Amino acid sequence: MAWLSDPLVASWYNVVMTLHVTAVTETPPGFGQAAVTEPAARTRRRATSFVAAGLLFVFTVAQRPAHGFRFDAQAYWSGAKAAWANILSGGLRSHAGLESIASSATKDGALAGLDSLLELPLRLRGILAYLSYSPPALMDRLFPGSGEAAVLVENSLIMAVVGAVLLPAIAKALGVRGPLVTGACAALVWLVGARFAPYPLMDLPAAAAFLGAVLFAAKRSPLGIALTGLCAGIAFNIRPAYLLPLAAVTAVVAVLHRFRALWLLPGAAVALLPQFLLNVVWGFWWVPVPPATWTLARYQADLGSYVVRYDTVLSSLPRQFYCDPHMASAAGGGLLHTLIGNFPWSAVFLAEKFSAALAWSPATPYSNPTATESYSLLLPVSAVTVCGALALIALAVRCRRGPLRGYSVTVVATLIGVCATLVTSSTETRFALPVVLLGVLGCALLLSGGKRAMSRGWWIAAGAGTLLVVVFAGMGLGHPLPAGAEDPMACAILP
Predict the structure, then answer these.
(1) 3-class SS of residue 321
(2) Per-residue confidence at 452, pLDDT binned at 50, 70, 90?
(3) How far is 172 from 125, CA to CA, in rounded Å?
C-alpha cells in the first residue's frame, strides 16, 4: 500500500476534496439523472475542466523523461523518425534507403531500428502507429536530444485530454456532470496512466482514439456518427486489438440509428485511407489493414490458450511469460477448441487472465524480473476497475428508456468487448489500460452521486469482485516460465 503515501497521490486527493466543495451545489439529484444547469454553473464547469487538464498535464510532465527507448518503444520511435526522413527527402525511400536510415540507429536500439524501418513491420503494424509520435520526432530532428522530453510532453497532453475532456464528456452523456466528476476523472487517470507517459508506446494514443469513438457514439447527427467511425478507424489502425470493443460500439450504433449508421463508413474510410495508400504503394493488398494483422491475431490467440499474460522486462531478456500448466498440457487445436475441451477449468483460466492483466506494478507499462517484481498497484487498480464496471452496468440496468438507455448500453457493450479481448489473446499488462479507464469513468459516476443510489448488496458485490480479482491474479501469476521461453511443454511440467 505504499502508493497511499506517495506525495503526488496526496496532492491529487487534496485537489479532489477541494473540487468536492464546489460540486455540492451541482451534484446531480440521482444516479444517471442530468442536473439542471445555469450559465454560471457551465462557466464553473469549464473552468474546472481547464484547471483539471492543467494539473493533470503538470503532474504528468513533472516526472523524468525516459533515458532512451527499447523494444517496442524504440520500434515506434524509429518509425516516427523515418517518416520525417522520408517526407523531407521528397517521398518514400527504396529498401536500400531504408537500410541506410536503419544503420543510423543507436547501438542499443539497432535491432529495433531495423525492425521499424523494413518491410515486415509495415506488414505488421498500422501506419498511424508510426505517425503517432511524429511531432516529438520532428522536435528531435530540429533539436537533437530533445526527443525523450518531447514524447513526455505529448503523452502528458494526451492524458490531459483523456482525463479532463473525454471521460467527463462521456459521463455527461450518461447524465452525470459537475466539477467532482472532472476532478475524479483527472486524478484517477493520473494514478493509472502517468507511468505510460515517458514512452512512445501505442497505449495512450490508441486509448484516446477509442474513448473518442465511445464519446461520439452518443451523438445522433450525421457528423457525430461519422466522427465515431473516424475515431474507431484510428484506434483500430494503431492497435487492432481494439477490434472487439469497436465492433460492439459499431453494432449498437447500427441498432440505434439504423440507416444513419451508414455515416460510420466515410469516417472510417478517412481514418484508414493512409493505410490503404501504403498498401497500394508497397504492393501488399487492397484491404486497408496491415497484411500480417490476422497472422499476428492467430499467433496471439494460440498463445492465449495457455499463457496468462506476458511482460516486457527492461533489465533482462525482454519477454516474461506467465502460464497455466493445466491448459498448456492440453494446448493445440486453437483457442476455442482448448477452452471448450477443458471446461470448467478453462473458466478459472479466463478469470486468471483478466485478473492478472490488472496486476500492475510501479514498473508498468514494463516489468521487473519475477524475483523482484512488486504488484503493489494490484489492489487500487482492481478496485477502480471492478467498482467502475459494476457502476456502469447498474446505470444501464436502471435506465429504462430513451437515449440515455441506448448510450449506457453502448458503454457496457464496449466494456464487455474490452474484457473479451483481454481473455482471448496473449496480452501484456499494459493492454488492460482501456478497461481500467472505463473503470475510472464508472468510479467518477459513483463519486458524483451514485453512492447514495447503490444498495448494500451492490457494495458487497463490488468488494467481493475486487477480492476475487486479487485472488485470481495471484493464481495466474504463480507459474512464470523461464525468461524468454513460451513453449507449452515447458509450461506443462511446471509444478
Answers:
(1) strand
(2) low
(3) 34
User: Which of 104, 29, 6 lies closest to 376 in space, CA to CA?
Assistant: 6
Residue with cell 547501438: 107
Least Cα distance to 234 among 211, 199, 206, 214 occurs for 206
pLDDT digits (tens, 9 = 90+) for 26-36: 444 444 444 44
> pTM for this one?
0.85
Distance CA 119, CA 127 (A): 12
Q: Quick one: pLDDT at residue 123?
A: 74
Cα distance between residue 132 and residue 475, in whole Å: 37
Cell digits for 242? 481494439
Whole-angstrom Cα distance, residue 330 to residue 332?
6
pLDDT of residue 159: 96
Q: Is the peptide bond before 121 cis (omega within 30 degrees of 0)?
A: no
Q: How would DSSP label each residue in 355-385?
A: HHHT---TTTTSB--TTT---TTHHHHHHHH
Most confident of 152-166, 177-191, 327-341, 442-456: 152-166
- Residue 26 is placed in which grid cell? 451541482
Q: What angle do CA 396, 253, 224 make, to 5 degrees?
A: 110
